Structures are given as structure tokens and as C-alpha cells.
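Example 3.2
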Amino acid sequence: MFVGFIHHNKHKAKRDRRKLQPWIQHLQKKIEIVQSTGTKVTLIEADRGYFDAEFFSLSYLGLLRGFDNPQDFLRIIVPKKFTAEKDDKKWKFLISGDSKQVSRQSIQLNYYVHEKLLEACENADVPKKDGYYHIPVSQVVLVDEYGQKSKRSFEEICQQARLVDQELTIIREKLESAEQEYLEFKSTPKKPIKKMKYNKGRRRSKFKNNLEKMLYTRCFELHDRLKKAKEQRQDILHATAFFYISIAPNEDVLRYSEKFIKYAMDYHERWAIENGFRDVKHKFLQKSRSQKSTRRQFYWLLGLKLYNRWQTRKCLDLLQKKRNEVHNVVPWDSRRPHVRQKLEQEVHTNWSAKSYLLSLWKTGVELCIKSI
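Structure, written as C-alpha cells:
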């Protein structure tokens, strides 16, 4: 089950001490509704708004469905929410020699939560330090999973990060030394220069002698190299995604690391849900200002039907093109639809939303003329 937090946390009221947060109670009702239809909820994929220690502790203790139904484990997966200095923390993790793609971590739960939850933590012998319970979780790092053309492994990107970090250190030292030499050469007692300026489009073209030109040019060359290395660092950071996945008591994270990686990879499928609603809203939904709910519902259902038929048409077109190359082989994993979207970009399928709607319009006009 995928749950998304309301933007700006509108339904997350200020919590009262010793009570469950309102959004947790709201989530428990959602679970009850889903299970009342005959579907068993075993995994919840939540967005970053649900990154909360209380949420993970309820999952770890098997109390997410309520305190009256204990020991019923329900796994959750949430993107890790960093605090200040997000990029620096991610970078230190990547360049560290001890980093692993799947590792056992903990999230702190303070003592201002529900009394029954604190009692359950005490009975389950959850580690406690400085007044905080440390709830065990699994941290998973994905690489090149979100819109990246390359497909590197975790070890490869860590090695690349260490090389870039070494290059950054060397360039900074050289740049500092080059700036010092230039400032010492350029400064005078009457007009001291304290700092080099690298404003865009303001490079000097006239110099007193070749030595001044050489020192000045070297500073800008090193500055450009430093800028390029910083861009490489940022690309590496954008290629990594961190997830926290709840674990059951006594569950071995390192032994079943592939299972947790699969959980994190499947989380990507939720983007297909959000992109699908976006396409329906902007491409297939008839705009209306009617106050009648039946009319608005009809337009929405019609948009959904058009979207589903459009996806089917694209699927058939893509299959036909790829099967002409390799006979009767499906070129993507049906359980990971975003892979099909990448393949569509490579093959350049002709069925865009506009072209599909035009083909429907053409067919409708032809049928009208035929019936007349």
C-alpha cells in the first residue's frame, strides 16, 4: 500500500504528549479499510513525510494496526529524511571505506510518546541510551535508479566518489597556493588585495608582464577545474537515493540484503502512480467548472479510460517493434514499468498523448460520416 503525505502537513496537528500523532491514527484507519475489502496489507511504501521514529517503532513492535492486535508485523519503507548538511552527510558516507549498500541502522525514539508504546519498547528489550530508544532499521542505498543513463554498482560509485574527493582536495590546495602567489605579486602597501574574484565575464585581458598573466591564468584554470569537480560530486549525490526499511525483531539484515534492495527498487514503481495521475489531469481530463459531482466524476472516469487505452496502445506498439528485432521476447520486466518508459524513449514510439487523441478523433469523425 502506498501512502502520500498531504502537502504542507495540513492534517498533522500539533501532537499532544503521550498520544499517537493524528496522521498515525488516520493511517491505521486506511489499513482497516483496505483489509475490509479482503486484501492483506504486508508492506507500506510511504513518502518522505512519514519519516518518523514513532512510525518505525510501531512497525518494529508489530503495533501498526493498533495496540489491540500485537505481534502482527507490517513492513514500511520510507526515503531517508536528512536534516542539515544533507549533501555533506551523504558524501561522507560514500567516501568512507566501511560503507555498505545495505546496513543495520537505528532511529531514535524519545520518551514523549504513547505510554503503551513505551511499555512495548521496554518489554521488547529495545536498546536504550540517554533516554532514547534506538529502533533497529535497515538502510538501503540505490544507485542510478532515478532517471540516470548509466548503471553503476554501489562499489563503483563509492570508488568514483573517493577519486573525485581526492581530486577536490588536490585542486583546492593548488588553487589556494596559486591565489596566494598572485596576491603577493599584485598587492602593494598602498593597495592591498585580499581576495581573488571569479566573476563571470570579467576576466582581465591586459597585464603588465608575462609573469602576472601566467599567475592570473593559472588561478582561473584551477578554478574551472574545481568547478567541474564539484559538478561531478553533485552528479554522484543526485545518483544516490537512501531508504529506511523497518525490520522485524531478530531479522538478519546483512544475510538477506538482496531482499531489502528489491524492496527499495520496487519503491520506484510509485512514480508510475503519480505520473499516471499527472498525465490524466493534464492530457486526458476534460476541463469543467460544473458544480455537479456526477459530471465531474464522468469526466474523470473518461480520462482514466483514455489513459489506460493509451498505455495499452503504446505497449502493443513497443512490443511489435522490439519483436521484429528479437522474435517473441518481451524486452522489459512487467513488474517494473518504469523500465518500459526508458525503453520507450530509446525506441521513440509514435503514440504520444496528442497523436493518440487525434487518432481517436479521426476514427470518431469517420464513424459519424459513415452513419450519416
